[in-house]
Amino acid sequence: xxxxxxxxxxxxxxxGDRATLSCRASQNIDTYLGWYQQKPGQxxxxxxxxxxxxxxxxxxxxxxxxxxxxxxxxxxxxxPEDFAIYYCQQRTDWPRTFGQGxxxxxx
Amino acid sequence: QIHLVQSGxxxxxxxxxxxxxxxxxxxxxxxxxxxxxxxxxxxxxxxxGWVNAGRxxxxxxxxxxxxxxxxxxxxATTAYMDLRSLKSEDTAVYYCAKLSDTLFFDYWGQxxxxxxxx
Lengths: 107, 118
Known about the structure:
The complex is a heterodimer.
Chain A: E1 4-7, E2 10-13, E3 19-25, E4 33-38, E5 45-49, E6 53-54, E7 62-67, E8 70-75, E9 85-90, E10 97-98, E11 102-106
Parallel strand pairs in A: 2-11
Antiparallel strand pairs in A: 1-3, 3-8, 4-5, 4-9, 5-6, 7-8, 9-10, 9-11
Chain B: E1 3-6, E2 10-12, E3 18-25, E4 34-39, E5 45-51, E6 58-60, E7 68-73, E8 78-83, E9 92-99, E10 105-108, E11 112-116
Parallel strand pairs in B: 2-11
Antiparallel strand pairs in B: 1-3, 3-8, 4-5, 4-9, 5-6, 7-8, 9-10, 9-11
């Protein structure tokens, strides 16, 4: 199965900072990667699909990039509501797999 | 609006079975697959499989093959997950999620906690 490895595990930042999260795939997944945000006690929320496309209603401060095996999620200027855990997920192959998550916490 | 509403929390003994429901509304149920994803405490999301809401056929992760069954009732616009031979390691929050046209999960249920303990 395709293993997704996210880094860093935790990102300690302040509101207004830029956040850059990484997701690396164990094999080429083209651009078939999505990003989700999850807050405590809530279901995940789709942010980005196919590496760089924002899902409906997602603010422009969220952007994604990459292809092949290396991907990034960037939050240009952190808002208070952005402190959460972020997961990447691939749709290239079965089983669908998720990364282990990056927690963005308030510094 | 689109909603996926799951059944309530469950406490089960090892070896028992659990059935979780996922009631959908706000879209054409038969048009989109429903996937099931679980999250054990402090762990990453784990994909379990999916059911074709129109045809009713299902695909399972090898990890759960033989122990889980996905079904749906089109008249009730509801999907179901039946997990058997429960073990303590099955303690997790179970989510249903609607597959979007982008082939990612655009709407999720609120999650159902299944606790397995003797």
